[in-house]
Write a structure and sequence with these properties.
By secondary structure, the protein is mainly alpha-helical. It has helices at residues 16-37, 49-75, 79-94, 124-137, 142-147, 151-166, 173-186, 190-202, 218-221, 224-232, 239-246, 255-277, 302-306, 319-348, 353-366, 374-378, 415-426, 430-443, 458-471; strands spanning 2-3, 6-7, 101-102, 290-291, 408-409, 448-449, 452-453, 474-475. It is built from 19 helices and eight strands.
Length: 482
């Protein structure tokens, strides 16, 4: 976390005196940078082109520091760092220099900020989790703040990600972050790409690699085909794909390295889905997370207004809001009744394999109308495409009529039999971490539906689980949708 003579990593320490020394170092650096950009004369002489360039560079560096201080003032789990970061920003503003402000309304575009746990209001257990995350990454990112709704899963997730990115393993640190960039870019997830671009540079990665995959080492370029298929149709991977990467050549992979790379690719493919599904906002200190412009009342996003993030809670006084709530309760009641009937039918008789296959095909036909438009697919962020090849290869709607894309029968693969032991043998402890995360996700429930408590949600959770797999071409022969 160095920017010139500035060191930020001391802020991650649990020792207050170490943080205090780091804050003093940062304060001095901010003073030096502000002195370089502050107007000192009423009628300064005209600057040369070199002088203008130097001034612009100095301002750019100061703005980077101010954006990081803004992030720390909002998202650091240590109170002393939050307060002093805010004080530094206030001091800069008093000098007549514009300081940044956050864009958006919290970690998620879908969840009102008031419903998300505020940093500084967490209990002792959650504070420990926040401090661990901050010490590891140097930030408390928006994914963590949204995932905190499920503390058990968050703990497992952070432990797994820390092991993959920071602990001893076959791959060097900069390779790990670059593979994360490749995986996130494959799904056009600019949020994760931007995060790992910063991390890649922090651990000493070559900036030239970020100009495009063709500028990365051939060893990483060779991973592109595997990344592509893993992201969209992993069942099409053959032993030839693996053999090609393991060939005894200058740019070949060892089996341990390849296992590490594959786990990283799949980790970030799935995390991209979480990022999109939860509407994760850009980090405060990253591009799109802050602005130096003055606020305007016309800057509200329609999604912010509709979900209550604009700061005015209109739903409590709105008759329409009351009707909507009533309708929602009726839908929950109907769903619970349907779950009960299905469970009774399941107890009475088991459907045949033919009946299960028929249900699967029926659900495919009925879901053909639930698909994204071509415009939505092409509207993804374009600048991340430099990190992968074959941009035409992507998601296919497996439920559409007339499409003959090979699907995958989930019964043909078992994590317990085929995956766990292999991963654990070639990359020790990772298999156990992934297995723990799988089980937590599969069994996660609070036994509630809306205002109802002590509800057996297993059937609904399995139906959602199976339906999502169906959308992505993974077929359950024993499928039963609600």
């Amino acid at each position: 976390m160095e920017e010139g003579e500035v060191r930020w990593d001391g802020l991650c320490s649990r020792d207050a005196s170490t943080r205090d020394a780091a804050l003093e170092n940062i304060r001095q650096a901010v003073l030096r940078r502000t002195a370089q950009v502050s107007p000192v004369k009423e009628d300064p002489p005209p600057e040369s082109s070199e002088g203008r360039l130097a001034s612009a560079t100095a301002l750019g560096r100061l703005n980077e520091m101010l954006a990081r201080l803004l992030m720390l003032s909002k998202r650091c789990p240590f109170r002393d760092v939050r307060e002093k970061s805010a004080s530094f920003l206030s001091n800069v503003q008093e000098l007549g220099i514009r300081i940044p402000r956050p864009l958006g309304h919290g970690p998620s575009r879908f969840i009102p900020e008031k419903e998300i746990l505020q940093v500084g209001n967490e209990d002792a257990q959650m504070h420990t989790l926040f401090a661990d995350s901050f010490a590891t990454l140097g930030r408390l990112d928006n994914i963590t703040l949204v995932m905190v709704f499920h503390p058990q899963y968050l703990g497992s997730f952070l432990k797994t990600q820390h092991y993959l990115l920071q602990m001893d393993g076959p791959l060097p640190l900069h390779y790990r972050h670059y593979i994360g960039i490749m995986a996130a870019a494959r799904h056009q997830c600019s949020y994760l790409v931007n995060l790992h671009v910063n991390d890649f540079l922090h651990v000493g990665g070559d900036p030239k690699w970020l100009n495009g995959l063709e500028n990365a080492p051939h060893k990483l370029q060779n991973l592109g085909e595997l990344n592509k298929i893993l992201a969209h149709r992993p069942w099409l991977i053959t032993k030839e794909h693996i053999e090609q990467l393991l060939k005894t050549e200058e740019h070949s992979w060892s089996l341990a390295e390849l296992i590490h790379a594959v786990v990283l690719l799949t980790h970030y493919h799935s995390l991209a889905s979480f990022t999109f599904g939860c509407g994760i906002s850009p980090e405060i200190h990253c591009e799109g997370g802050h602005t130096f412009k003055l606020p305007s009342v016309s800057n509200y996003c329609i999604c912010d207004i509709t979900n209550g993030n604009h700061g005015v809670d209109e739903t409590h006084d709105s008759p329409a809001g009351s009707i909507s709530t009533t309708e929602s309760f009726c839908e929950v009641e109907a769903l619970m009744e349907k779950m009960k009937k299905l469970q009774e039918c399941r107890d009475e008789e088991e459907a045949s394999q033919e009946e299960m296959a028929t249900r699967f095909e029926r659900e495919k036909r009925e879901s053909m109308f639930v698909c994204c438009s071509e415009d939505e697919e092409s509207a993804s962020t374009r600048d991340v495409s430099r990190h992968f090849e074959d941009t035409s290869y992507g998601y296919k709607d497996f439920s559409r009529h007339g499409m003959h894309v090979p699907t995958f029968r989930v019964q043909d693969y078992s994590w317990e039999d085929h995956g766990y032991s292999l991963v654990n043998r070639l990359y020790p402890d990772v298999g156990q971490l992934i297995d723990e995360k799988f089980h937590i996700a599969y069994d996660l429930t609070y036994n509630t539906m809306a205002m109802h408590k002590d509800v057996d949600t297993s059937m609904l959770r399995r139906a959602i689980w199976n339906y999502i797999h169906c959308m992505f071409g993974i077929r359950f022969m024993l499928i039963c949708f609600l």
